[in-house]
Design brief:
Layout lengths: L8 H10 L9 E5 L11 H24 L4 H31 E6 L2 E6 L2 E6 L4 E6 L5 E7 L4 E7 L15 E8 L4 E7 L1 H13 L11
Antiparallel strand pairs: 1-2, 2-3, 3-4, 5-6, 6-9, 7-8
Helix pairs in contact: 2-3
Length: 216
């Protein structure tokens, strides 16, 4: 049984789910999960209005088709339109809640871990970069780990510039850049972020086996 000092029964249950993924001698310093009570994120500012518009159009098409007595077969596209709208407005929040309930985060002396059902990912806790974002009241925190190996890709914009004289064909726009991080791991919407960050600091301070603070 994994023992985390001061852990509650709930934490011990989450820790047990990570047990099969630990290496011999690897110590679990902290475990937790994304808070299912956090329903909204920044993307919802756009997604919710878009979903409402989509749903409204779907309902209007469905009612219009029914009013003219369209065959049931022709009503299927409208029903699908409405179903997608319902998912955009409400269904994806249910899916988000379920996903968070199934997700477990872990920090060991060597790695950061994410487990959800049969899905498992791990990345070294040391090296690379780490970005921390706290909620407005500091009750939740999100950490993004980018191990060594991430890189920036630059590419020209596609036909986004002003039209070329005499042709009307748009010119290639300015270069755009994006960071590619194949090993990126994200701990999102974690309650009590101080305990998580303390575990990260503890893991980063642990020296590799065979090394010491004293010079040889």
């Amino acid at each position: 049984m994994i023992g985390i000092p001061g852990a509650t029964n709930g934490s011990q249950t989450l820790a047990a789910r990570l047990q099969p993924y630990l290496r011999p001698g690897e110590e679990l310093l902290w475990c937790g999960r994304p808070d299912p009570a956090v329903f909204f994120n920044a993307t919802d500012v756009i997604a919710i209005p878009f979903g409402l518009v989509w749903l409204g159009i779907g309902v209007a098409i469905q009612q219009g088709a029914s009013a003219v007595g369209a065959p049931q077969l022709l009503l299927l596209p409208a029903d699908l339109f409405v179903a997608i709208g319902i998912y955009l407005v409400a269904g994806r929040f249910i899916r988000r809640w379920i996903t968070k309930r199934r997700t477990v985060y872990g920090i060991t002396s060597d790695r950061v871990l994410v487990q959800m059902g049969r899905y498992f990912r791990a990345s070294p806790v040391k090296g690379g970069s780490m970005a921390v974002r706290r909620g407005r009241r500091g009750r939740h925190g999100t950490v993004v780990f980018e191990p060594f190996g991430s890189y920036v890709v630059s590419q020209p914009g596609l036909m986004t510039g002003p039209p070329m004289a005499g042709t009307g064909v748009p010119t290639i726009g300015p270069l755009t850049s994006r960071r590619v991080a194949p090993g990126q791991i994200r701990f999102a919407d974690v309650a009590d972020p101080d305990a998580m960050l303390a575990a990260i600091d503890q893991a980063k301070s642990v020296l590799p086996a065979g090394q010491s603070l004293t010079a040889p």
